[in-house]
Amino acid sequence: MFPHLFPEHAAFGWVREPQYELPNVAALQRQIAEVEAAAREKTETLTQAITAERAKWEFLHELLRETGDPLLEAVQTALGTIGFKDVRNSDKLASGGRKWEDLQVHDRSPVLLVEIKGVAGTGTEHDAIQVGKYLAPRMKEWNRTDVSGVSIINHQRNLPGLDRSTSPFTDVVLENALSQGFGLMTTWDLFRLVRNFLQLGWKPEDLQPLFYQAGRIDAVPAHYEFVGVIEKYFERPAVVGISVSGAALRQGDQIAFELPIDFIEQDVNSLEVERKSVGEAAAGSLVGVKTDLRKEQEGKGARVFRIKTR
Fold first, then answer.
1. What angle, rounded to 10 degrees, do the helices at 23-65 and 68-81 form?
2. How many other CB atoms are there within 10 angstroms of residue 47's CB atom?
3. Mean pLDDT by 10-residue block, N- to C-terminus, for the chain (310 residues)?
4. CATH of 68-216, one of 2.40.330.10, 3.40.91.50, 3.90.1580.10, 3.40.50.2000
5. Looking at CB atoms within 10 Å, which of 20, 57, 113, 143 has the fewest?
């Protein structure tokens, strides 16, 4: 602004102007400009890809935050994503103004009735067992007894998924579900199942049988077999100590660790019991398995599953 106050600066500043710049420096500056332009173009391309991905899979987030019709549509999309072909909106099929279940799944026997609720708390018993009230009327209407149901609750929907209660259903609700033969699931369960289905390449038959179970549905695919839990973690080398209480573990098996959101799958290339290499670790043993898990990922008590051969 006032170059006359800094004559020494003004005297030499002009040598940095383009017409006086050193040829090699000018070439390097052009390279910088090209890199910056390419980065801006790549960033724009990636930003557009992010927008497209969010639009395509937004139903996964809607499972966790919505209620009413948006939640119903998100659940319907989720069921279609894991391979159900014939999922019907009961409201669009209803006549006479009578309230029925939210969705019907007609892919196989039994017909599956799905009741969906989004609540700010853990939900009332009425919310959770409502689907059970539709079973007998539908059996009578359709003149068939192969009708099952599942209640899917988006509980504490204003909280992040990891902050929600892991026991949203009361003992009375659990007893009702078992006695009446319908399942109980949260949208957090469904979110995790669909997310891992997409990431790990699970098959529809790995997840679909879960929805026909009675009582509290465990969000674990059907091709996983419980082995035990992580008891210890050794950082160097990266080894987990697994307390085996279920299926035996063998060299060559493929296993999965259950993290708070995702499952991590890996091969079992070696087993050690009391620092001795073994081919199999049976129930009751504490076995060391080399792992790709990082220290911040492992969690004492995390469940471990053997992946059954399809």
1. 110
2. 10
3. 67 76 90 97 97 97 96 98 96 71 96 95 84 94 96 96 93 93 96 98 97 97 96 84 93 94 93 88 91 78 91
4. 3.40.91.50
5. 143
